[in-house]
Amino acid sequence: MLVSSMNLSEIRKEINKDIDIVVRKSMFVAEDVRKANAPLRGKRIIQTFDYVSKHKNNWIYRIDIDKRGILSNYLAWYYNDRGLAGIEAFPNSEYLLYFTTHYFKRYNERMNFGITEPKVLLHTFMNNHTAYTFQNLEEVSPGIWKIFAVTKNGVALGTCITSLKFVKMNTFITHSMLKGNQLEIEAQKKEELQKYLASVHKLD
Predict the structure, then answer these.
(1) What's the pLDDT band for 128 if we cut at 50, 70, 90?
(2) Nearest Cα to 186, choosing from 197, 178, 196?
(3) Predicted model pTM
């Protein structure tokens, strides 16, 4: 079970205990959703689901379905000594994204959601985030980089720890808050993101 005293290595071990089972569970659910909405034709269905693992970890998984196939991503969430935190995992990626309490506060505030219920905020977050494109900004110490991550709704600023394959998402800013050379990076990474999304979903 995820607890506040865990370091990043311990968090990864806990995620690894669950992830295969969570993925299998999501695929069964996704197939049921696909069948219930067949024929898909021009439809796109995005849904989020709660799941509690046998190791007593809380998960939210997102399924994104159209006629090209099924995409999914996964967020384990818990409370550490600062508040709500989340760890997002993606199929076919060794990297985990760690979202801090500060990130979620700024996300809620800067998207003008005004959401007071943590689980509602997490479901909203998952429904609005499909993918990121990353840019390393500065190596602050060997193997540790400041990063700039563009998603459809804004930008995450954080730190990538390459030895642990962890990206710590420290805060969220909207596209309108960017300035200086951030605008140039955003333009490049936004184009990469749009190309990726177009390749996996016709309707995006």
Answers:
(1) confident
(2) 178
(3) 0.92
